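Backbone description:
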Amino acid sequence: MSFDDFPAGLLAGPAPAAIHGGSQWRFIGPDPGQMGELVLADVNDAWYPPAPPAVEAMRRALDRIQHTPEVHGECLRRLVAEHLGQPEERILLGAGASPLLQRLILRACARGGPMLVPAPEYSEYQRVAAAAGAPVFRCVLDHETGLRIDPDRLAACAAACNAAVVVVSNPSNPAGQVMTPDAVECLLKQLPPSCLLLVDEAYIDHAPGASMLGRVPGQPKLAVVRSLSKGPALAGLRAGFAAVGSAWPGPRSDIQQPWQLSLLAQAAFMPALAAEDYVVGRVAETHSLRDRLRRDLAAVPGLRLLPTEVHFFLVELEPGLPPAETLVGRLARRKVLVRDGTPFGTPLGPRWLRVTARSQAENQRLVAAFSEELERPSGGSKP
C-alpha cells in the first residue's frame, strides 16, 4: 500500500521528541528536599503523600536494606497474580511502567513490524519503537471531539499501516480522555489478526471502571501495564506490573535483568496494591481540586480548556497571547511549572499547554501566575 492510500490523518514517523515533565530537577539539583515553593504542574505525579501502608512497609524494610532483593521477583509475582486472580506466568514486574512498556513494545516490534499510536500521545512509546528501528505511525485525533479515540478509525489505520502493535494510554495522556471497556473491546475485534494491543493504564485510578486488567485472560492479543506511581503516590519508588494475553511472550521467555525491583519497592508493592480505599478518597479529592482549578483558569481571558476525565488537561492559548514555550519560561521564573504541549506533536503545537491539578494552595498560585503573566502589556512572543 502506498502513502496515497493511507486514511486521512495517518502520519508516518514519531512525534518530534520524547520530552517528559518533571523539570523541577533543573532548578533544585538531585535533592528532593529542595523542592520548596515550586508548583509542579508540569508532571502528573500525585500532590498528596504516599499510601500510608506502603510507607510503613518501607520503614520496616529499611532495617534490612543491606540485603539484596529477590533476583526476579518470583515470590512477589506470585502474590500479585493471586491478588489479580490471573495466571502467574502472564504477570510481569518492573521498576515502574516505563521498562515494562519498553520491553513489550520491543517484543511486539521485534520482526520489524510498525507501531501505531493515537496523536497526541505519550511520546515514550514512539521513542522506544523508533530507537529499535521499527516504523512508527500516528493516527491524528480530532479537536472537535476533545481528542477522543475513535476505535473504528484507529483500527482502520492499524490495517492501513499493517501495524504489529497499537499502543494507547487509557485514560489518555495528554488529553485525559477515557475509552470504555466496550470501546477497547471494539478496537480489539477490528484489529488485523496479527496485531497486538498494549494499553497503558497509568492513570486508571481516575477511571477505575474503564480498566481492561480483568479482561486480559480472555483477550490473547491484549496487554495491560499498570504503575504504583500515580494512585498510591509512589512515583519515586519505581514499581509497576503488566498482565499479558497468551499471544504475548510470557515472563519466562524473556531475558530479564536481575534485581529490577529494589528491596523497598518489593516491600511496598502489595501494601500499595491493597490501599484502594486511600487511593479512591484521594482521587475524589483531586477531582474536586481539578474542577475548581478549571473554573478559575477558564475565567482568565485567552485560555481555552479542553474537557478531561483525569487530574490534568490541555489548555489552548488564543492568538495574541505568548506562545507556549515563552509562557512556560515566564511561569517558571515564578516557580510555577507547566508543560509545553508542542513536543506531543500533531495536532498540538506552539499554542498548547498541559496543566496538572495540585493542592488548593498550589492551584491558587498557578491561577495567579497565569493571570498576571497574561495581563502583561508586552504580550506577543517576547519573554
User: Anything to note?
Assistant: The longest helix spans residues 276-298. The chain has a mean pLDDT of 91. The CA atoms of residues 80 and 270 lie 7 Å apart.
